[in-house]
Amino acid sequence: MKCGALYSAEPSAPVAVVPDGYPIMPHHLTAENGAKALLLGEFKLRVITECPECCELEEPTEGCDICNAEGEYGQKHTVPWDQIKFIYSKAVEGLAVKAEPAKS
User: Fold this and answer.
1) Which of 11, 26, 76, 79 would you call most buried, defined as having the most Cβ atoms within 10 angstroms of its Cβ?
2) CB neighbours of 9 closer than 8 A, spacing ≥ 6?
3) Alpha helices in the chain (DSSP H)
4) Is there a contact between 35 and 29 (Cβ–Cβ < 8 Å)?
5) What is the spatial distance between Cα 86 and Cα 41, in angstroms, rounded to a whole number?
6) What is the value of pTM for the model shown?
7) What are the residues whose beta carbons fall under 8 Å from the beta carbon of 51, sequence distance 6 or more?
8) pLDDT 10s digits, 37-96
């Protein structure tokens, strides 16, 4: 190997400075970058619904199999992958560090 073979005469690209508190993250969530396996199924919403068996009654039925005499019951719904990607894209859009012009 010749002396200086590792050096280039062309200027290198500017190095990005990552502010404290900011991680380096991908612009998009994909299966290829591992995000889908990491996040799919992690987020759930709890939806409260009025009990169909007890809603017409003055008092919920004691021992109701659906609401357990509460008058309402909760169901967990998984946040869909498309919604997770949309939320992430909005966070990237709003929180991305803007590149500063190079100083001469």
Assistant:
1) 79
2) none
3) 35-39, 81-95
4) yes
5) 15
6) 0.65
7) 60, 64, 66, 67, 70, 71, 72, 73
8) 999 999 999 999 999 999 888 888 899 999 999 999 999 999 999 999 999 999 999 988
Tokens of 46: 């709890």
How far apart, in whole angstroms, are the C-alpha atoms of residue 19 and residue 56? 58
Q: Using alpha carbons only, give the angle 58, 59, 63 rounded to the nearest 5 degrees.
A: 145
Residue 59 C-alpha from the chain's centroid: 41
Query: What three-state secondary structure class fits 69?
Result: coil
Cα separations (Å) of 100 from 9, 16, 35?
A: 25, 9, 29
Q: How far apart are CA 104 and CA 86, in angstroms?
A: 38
Tokens representing 25 are 């993250």
- Pinpoint the alpha helices (H) of 4-80: 35-39
Q: Quick one: tokens of 8?
A: 């280039």
